[in-house]
Amino acid sequence: MGEPAKKLSALGLSSGGLDSILSALVLKEQGIEVSWISFETPFFSADNARKASADTGIPLITRYILDDYLEMLLNPPAGYGKNMNPCMDCHALMFRLAHQVMQEIGADFLFSGEVLGQRPKSQTQNALNYVNKHSGAPGYILRPLSAKKLTPTILENQGLIDREQLLDLNGRSRKPQMALAEKYGIKEYPAPAGGCLLTDKGFSDRLRDLFAYQKSYAARDFEFLKYGRHFRLSETVKAIVGRNRSDNEQINAHIKEDEDIIIKMAGIPGPSVILPHGADEQAVRLAAQLCGAYSKAKEGETAGVSILAGGSKQVIQVEVPEKEIFYNSIL
Questions:
Q1: In which region does residue 228 sit, left (phi positive, over 0), alpha (psi from -120 to 50) or beta (all else)?
Q2: E strands within the chain?
Q3: CA-based radius of gyration for the chain
Q4: Is 23:12 a contact under the CB 8 Å cutoff?
Q5: What is the pLDDT of residues 119-148, one digit of tens each?
Q6: Burial of 320 per CB tally in 10 Å (0-12, 13-18, 19+)
Q7: Could you tell me if 287 and 266 are in contact, meaning their C-beta atoms sit under 8 angstroms apart?
Q8: Which residues neighbour 269 within 8 Å (Cβ) at sequence distance 6 or greater?
Q9: Whole-prediction pTM value?
Q10: Main-chain phi, psi angles of 141, to 5 degrees
């Protein structure tokens, strides 16, 4: 007797959302072994994918891809969406990287939970075709939830995947997915809103500023963009002002005391003000006034401000200005 035929296996891109979960379960129903991969950068996390993996038992691989992502983000061939979101090239990059992992683990094809027509920019027929073309794996990307509306993949044409068991979802309605969730007994799943910070206008404005004024970037530069108020003080200096205790804690977690300047009020409640990568004396004094303006000190009074730079600390006196003088500098 010959050996039994190898069971098909598939590696899926997972956001951890309902569509990702359903696409995997649809494939499992026809005996295909499924696993997931989820990518992380400072702009999006794999936390929802981790939860989905824990809930379903589907194995998950995670990869941190900031270097590859930045190379694409700085010049996406298909351009950006409404903000700094390069959705088409982002998806193409993720499939290229997933294809490498697919080959490493010996999986037979890739899949995702994308639904034709669900997102007006990134899930149109043209967008899906663009991703297929630039993925490094054309013909090996299956979208189980909309497969019957799309060109058959190579494995479907070979009869290795039963196309009749795949779905024909199309459009923005979530009712079919909710019905499938009930069928599969899925009770908890995240809302369909995107979890990518690059779709957020405020974050995108700060990111454009970073790219415009800074020539090299570390992960912490992007982490800083998530918190506090940001002020462009000069072409070479940006100040970050914590809004509350939580902001201050998050900002402080990414500080490098040998590189950054940390400014706080001396003896008066106030925010942490950070000058990433340092600043000249004039910018430090301006940032000290900024710290005073957002502290509990009264406008017009003289207040002590603590400056920590390069491991040494000094206290300077500044006249507390009104906040309004900084409004044109807000990012």
A1: left
A2: 9-13, 33-40, 60-64, 109-111, 141-142, 229-232, 238-241, 261-265, 273-275, 302-309, 312-319
A3: 25
A4: yes
A5: 877 789 999 999 999 999 999 999 999 999
A6: buried
A7: no
A8: 295, 296
A9: 0.92
A10: -110, 115
